[in-house]
């Protein structure tokens, strides 16, 4: 595959297929855990004291806007070599409210794309939610709904799962953004919480497939589990084998990089790949619309990595404890490349 040229504003991927070449129009969809993107205001009912002026982190306007600029630079660069406008949409997690997302998309690197925001306040005690930003020229939202995870232990509160439905260049696409419960207390002890989150995700998926068997669905998020964990494989029903993406089983393209030892976050000298985008069978086969899956990328550019010390190569984060590091996030972002045939629409 060669990098795209831009013809009449359309990015084309040229792929060698035997003795012939096929041109495709790409669409890019991503996910990024923004790691504690808080504003500087005290929000009632939210445990945000850690990120207020006067806290040990000394979180104020200067550091807030510095983080926004750094994140905006990353988002603007994602997929820019494949499409001149970059990402059509980006699911995000660990955002305090709608305001921080609106501030993010107004920063200089993103301002000209006119990204719009979808966000619903959730019940998480720390006040962090999931959300979606999207380029309205590429993805037009027509509906969204937030789903709450209810547990037998009513004191347990976690992030809602956000369903956003829209039109991607003629294709109706449903995007579910999630941030599953953490591994706090240990992976095994906390596993039932992620199982429950996976079951909620599967419920949303099944409700969409019941209305249309070839629904084009992307399930994305920080799952706090790897592609091989049972929460993903059994309860969400996402397989790393494309051939098994039938009858409602999703394809998880993050399985292959994980098996190669590639991750999106590191902990105690081992890599995890918690940040995943799983897709419905229709996006694998191309049925029911124009776009289908082409490839996946973990956006782990050198500037996103810590350069030296014991944690060289790890994601460069904003804080380590209360020590300011002037980084980005403790996760690398990820994105998928979807393609449609350029010849079918005369875009050459």
Overview of this structure, please?
Helix content is 20%, strand content 33%. It is built from 7 helices and 19 strands. The strands form 5 sheets. Strands 1, 2, 3, 4, 5, 6, 16 and 19 form an 8-stranded mixed sheet that branches. The chain has a 5-stranded mixed sheet with strand order 7-8-9-10-15. A two-stranded parallel ribbon has the order 11-12.
- What class, by secondary structure content? alpha+beta
CATH superfamily: Endonuclease/exonuclease/phosphatase
* CATH topological fold name: Deoxyribonuclease I, Chain A
Per CATH, the architecture is 4-Layer Sandwich
Helical percent range? 10-25%
Number of helices: 7
Strand content: 25-35%
**CA(first)-CA(last) distance:** 17 Å
CATH class: Alpha Beta
Strand runs, count: 19
The helix/strand series, from N terminus to C terminus, equals EEEHEHHEEEEEHEHEEHEEEHEEEE
Q: What is the count of distinct domains?
A: 1
On the 0 to 100 scale, the average pLDDT is: 92
Please give the radius of gyration in angstroms: 20 Å
Uncertain parts? 1-10
Largest sheet, in brief, is:
8 strands, mixed
- What is the overall silhouette? globular
Give the topology, please:
Elements: E1 2-7, E2 10-17, E3 20-37, H1 61-77, E4 89-95, H2 98-105, H3 108-111, E5 116-119, E6 129-134, E7 139-147, E8 161-168, E9 171-179, H4 187-211, E10 217-222, H5 230-235, E11 238-239, E12 250-251, H6 255-259, E13 265-267, E14 270-272, E15 275-279, H7 281-285, E16 292-298, E17 319-320, E18 323-324, E19 334-341
Parallel strand pairs: 3-4, 9-10, 11-12
Antiparallel strand pairs: 1-2, 2-3, 3-19, 4-6, 5-6, 7-8, 8-9, 10-15, 13-14, 16-19, 17-18
């Amino acid at each position: 595959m060669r990098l795209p040229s831009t013809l009449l504003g359309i990015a084309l991927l040229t792929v060698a297929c035997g003795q012939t070449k096929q041109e495709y129009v790409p669409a890019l969809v991503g996910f990024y855990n923004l790691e504690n993107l808080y504003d500087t205001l005290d929000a009632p009912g939210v445990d945000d004291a850690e990120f207020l002026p006067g806290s040990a982190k000394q979180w104020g306007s200067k550091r807030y806007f510095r983080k926004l600029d750094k994140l905006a630079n990353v988002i603007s660069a994602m997929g820019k070599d494949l499409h001149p406008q970059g990402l059509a949409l980006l699911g995000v997690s660990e955002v305090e409210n709608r305001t921080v997302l609106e501030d993010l998309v107004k920063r200089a690197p993103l301002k000209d794309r006119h990204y719009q925001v979808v966000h619903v306040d959730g019940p998480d005690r720390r006040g962090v939610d999931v959300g979606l930003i999207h380029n309205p020229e590429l993805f037009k939202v027509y509906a969204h709904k937030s789903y709450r995870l209810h547990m037998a232990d009513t004191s347990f509160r976690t992030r809602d799962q956000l369903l956003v439905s829209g039109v991607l260049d003629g294709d109706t696409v449903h995007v579910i953004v999630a941030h599953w419960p953490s591994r706090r207390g240990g992976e095994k002890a906390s596993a039932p919480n992620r199982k429950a989150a996976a079951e909620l995700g599967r419920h949303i998926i099944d409700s969409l497939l019941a209305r249309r068997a070839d629904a084009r669905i992307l399930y994305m998020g920080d799952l706090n589990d790897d592609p091989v964990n049972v929460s993903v494989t059994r309860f969400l029903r996402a397989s790393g084998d494309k051939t098994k993406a039938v009858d409602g089983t999703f394809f998880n393209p993050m399985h292959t990089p994980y098996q190669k030892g590639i991750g999106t976050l590191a902990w105690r000298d081992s890599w995890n790949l918690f940040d995943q985008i799983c897709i419905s069978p229709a996006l694998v086969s191309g049925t029911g619309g124009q776009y289908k899956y082409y490839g996946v990328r973990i956006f782990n550019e050198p500037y996103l990595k810590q350069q030296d010390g014991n944690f060289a190569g790890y994601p460069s984060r904003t804080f380590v404890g209360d020590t300011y590091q002037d980084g980005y996030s403790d996760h690398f972002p990820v994105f998928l490349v979807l393609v449609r045939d350029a010849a079918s629409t005369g875009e050459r």
